[in-house]
Design a protein that fits this description.
Elements (H helix, E strand, L loop, with lengths): L2 E6 L3 H12 L4 E5 L13 E3 H6 L7 E5 L1 E5 L5 E5 L5 E4 L1 H14 L3 E4 L2 E7 L4 E7 L2 E12 L8 H4 L7 E9 L7 E5 L8 E7 L2 E8 L5 H9 L11 E7 L7 E2 L2 E3 L15 H21 L4 H31 L2 H13 L1 H10 L6 H12 L8
Parallel strand pairs: 1-2, 1-11, 2-8, 5-13, 11-18
Antiparallel strand pairs: 3-7, 4-7, 5-6, 9-10, 10-11, 12-15, 12-16, 13-14, 14-15, 17-18
Helix pairs in contact: 1-3, 1-6, 6-7, 7-10, 8-9
Length: 381
C-alpha cells in the first residue's frame, strides 16, 4: 500500500483536505494535471470574511476588502448595501491556491504535479490509481481516494459516483484598469440568458464577469453595455468555465468520495465554490479520519459525510435554486419594482439589511420571496 489517502486535484479544497489528513499522521499524496498549481483559474476571488478566518486562509492572498456593494436592477435602479467593516475579501486565487498547496506539502503530503489521473480500480483492501507520467502509465494505491477535481468529472463514472446534473456558465475578463469604488452586482435577467454580472476592483486591475445558464458571451456584452461603456476588453482575454449548480446525488462509494465542486458543493446563488467546498472538506475530514481508524471505508460508513453535508447545507442549496428559478421567470419590470420597494420603504430596506449574510443566503431569499408574494406584514409603498 503506497498511501492512506490519495487526493485527485490540488485546488484549494483538495490541498486543504490533504493537509488536514496529513496533520493527523496519515500518509497522503496529491495529484494534479497542472504543473503550476493555481494557474489559469477562472474565479472572482471573493470569499466571505467569516469563512476566510474560520478556515485559516492566508492573509497574504488578500488583495482587497469589500464593505459596500451596489446592486443594479435590469433598468439600473440602484440599491446600496454598506457595512461598518468588510464583510468579504478579494483574494488572488492563484496565490491562494499556491499557499494552500505549499501548506499541505509542509504537512507531509507527497505532491505529484503534471500527472493526469486516468483510471481508478477498486480492489479488496485498496484502490488503485493509474496516472500518466512522462508518456507512460504508472500506478499508486491507497486505502481511499478523494476526488477534488473541480468541474472535471472524468473519474466519477470509474469511481461509481454521480456527477452534478446541472451547470451554470461563468465568463470573466480581467481589465488593465484600476476601478475606484465598491463591488457592483447587476441583475441582467434576460430570459434567454438568465444571468447576473459583477464588476470587482482587483488591485490595479478590474474583474468583470457574468454567470449565465448557458455558454453565451452575449451576457458579458450585455454587462458591458450596462456599465455605460466604462470598460473595453479584448475578446481573446475572456475566460470561460462551467460551474456545478446543485450538489451531486451520490458523493461516496466504497473507498472513494468527491468533495468541493466535484461534489457540487457550490453556492447556487453566486456560483462561488470555495466556502461551501471548505465546509465539505471539513465534514469529509472527520468522516475519513474515523473511517481510517476503524479501517472501514465501506460505502455505508462513508455515507455519513454525504448525510452530514445535506443536513448542514441542503437548505442553502435549495434556496439558491428556488431564487434562480424565480428570477428566470420574472420580467425585468418586476425586478425593477422590487428595487423601488426596497429604496422607498425604510422598513423593507432595514429588513433586507438585517437578513443579508454574504455567506448564507437562505433567510434573505425567503424574505424576498415572501415580500413579493405578500406573505409578510411589511407594507409596500
Amino acid at each position: 500500500m503506497d498511501f492512506d489517502f490519495i487526493v485527485a486535484g490540488a485546488g484549494p479544497i483538495g490541498s486543504y483536505l490533504s493537509g488536514l489528513l496529513a496533520r493527523d499522521g496519515f500518509s497522503v499524496a496529491i495529484f494534479d494535471r497542472k504543473q503550476d498549481v493555481g494557474k489559469g483559474v477562472v474565479c472572482s476571488g471573493i470569499i466571505g470574511k467569516g469563512p476566510y478566518h474560520e478556515f485559516d486562509l492566508p492573509e497574504d492572498a488578500i488583495i482587497g476588502k469589500i464593505s459596500t456593494g451596489l446592486l443594479f436592477s435590469p433598468s439600473l435602479i440602484e440599491f446600496q448595501y454598506s457595512h461598518g467593516s468588510p464583510f468579504a475579501y478579494i483574494a488572488d486565487r492563484e496565490k491562494l491556491d499556491k499557499i494552500l498547496f505549499a501548506r499541505a506539502v509542509n504537512e507531509g503530503v507527497s505532491p505529484f504535479l503534471g500527472n493526469i489521473v486516468t483510471d481508478l480500480k477498486k480492489e479488496k483492501e485498496r484502490i488503485l490509481l493509474k496516472y500518466l507520467r512522462n508518456g507512460g502509465i504508472e500506478e499508486k494505491s491507497a486505502r481511499c481516494v478523494i476526488i477534488a477535481t473541480g468541474h472535471n468529472f472524468a473519474l466519477h463514472r470509474k469511481a461509481k459516483l454521480v456527477a452534478p446534473e446541472r451547470f451554470l456558465w461563468g465568463s470573466r475578463v480581467e481589465l488593465d484598469y484600476k476601478m475606484e469604488g465598491p463591488l457592483e452586482i447587476y441583475f441582467l435577467n434576460n430570459p434567454d440568458i438568465g444571468s447576473f454580472g459583477w464588476v470587482i476592483p482587483f488591485g490595479d486591475k478590474t474583474r468583470m464577469g457574468i454567470l449565465s445558464k448557458d455558454y453565451d458571451r452575449n451576457a458579458l456584452y450585455s454587462l458591458i453595455q450596462k456599465t455605460n461603456g466604462r470598460f473595453k476588453f479584448r475578446e481573446d482575454r475572456v475566460e470561460d468555465a462551467p460551474i456545478a449548480y446543485g450538489d451531486s446525488k451520490k458523493m461516496v462509494d466504497e473507498r472513494v468520495i468527491a468533495v468541493g465542486e466535484a461534489a457540487g458543493q457550490v453556492k447556487t446563488t453566486t456560483g462561488g465554490g470555495i466556502h461551501y467546498g471548505l465546509i465539505g472538506a471539513s465534514i469529509a475530514h472527520n468522516t475519513l479520519k474515523k473511517a481510517a481508524l476503524a479501517d472501514d471505508f465501506s460505502a455505508n460508513n462513508l455515507l455519513e459525510y454525504e448525510r452530514l453535508w445535506r443536513i448542514r447545507m441542503g437548505e442553502q442549496v435549495k434556496a439558491g435554486i428556488t431564487l434562480r428559478n424565480l428570477l428566470s421567470k420574472m420580467p425585468p419590470k418586476a425586478i425593477d419594482l422590487v428595487f423601488n420597494w426596497a429604496k422607498k420603504n425604510p422598513a423593507i430596506k432595514e429588513k433586507l439589511e438585517q437578513s443579508f449574510c454574504f455567506d448564507y443566503h437562505k433567510d434573505l431569499i425567503e424574505f424576498g420571496i415572501n415580500l413579493m408574494s405578500g406573505k409578510n406584514n411589511l407594507k409596500v409603498i
